[in-house]
Here is the input.
Amino acid sequence: GHDLPGRPDLADLLEELNQVQGLSRIRFLTSHPKDMSQRLIEAVARLPKVCEHISLPVQAGDDEILKAMRRGYTVEQYRELVHRVRKTIPGVALSTDVIVGFPGETEEQFQHTFELLRELRFDQVHVAAYSPRPGTIAARKLRDDVPHQEKMRRLKVLEKLQEQIAAEINSRLLGQEVEVLVEGRRGGRWYGRTRTNKLVFFDHETDLLGQLVQVRIEHASAWSLQGRLCDKIDTS
Here is the structure.
């Protein structure tokens, strides 16, 4: 929208969407860290319909690898951004993306990524092994020199770490009531998402598709929550 009068940005769009009648939730999927302005952070914190969940793909926890990826920020700048988001938005859930085995990534550089994830403790981490993509600068100029087996080892190490962290974070919700937007049925049970993008399963006989309900959490794992329906939410 920067070519429009007044150069509106995503924060302005969220402001307008928050005024739409009949719209209960607003969630945007992801933001490049360089685009996550303080104004946008404050809009998420202030606007009641905007969900407290933000995805900030870090991709790597080593400055040399970030430079090779042309990400445009350092580890310290990313760390400071995460701290600002958490300070401004109480109860925010953060997710991130990581690539392991980027060309030239050493074991020491991989350990920097491991330590960053252990320090920042994200709610979700999506880990992928690097593979050349036609047309990208990395594919044209960088040699894919990390063996596939080593990429898979690094991927599994990060996934194991994140499983432990996510289980600990989700266990804090035990006994709490959470708002769930019901998305469908799976395995004979209703499922939906909290405002912080947690997957919740529960049982109920009537059709609740598309409704907001309150669920008391009775079981938590790294990947999902299970609970008991408390009450539907009146959004009229």
The chain is about 35% helix and 25% strand.
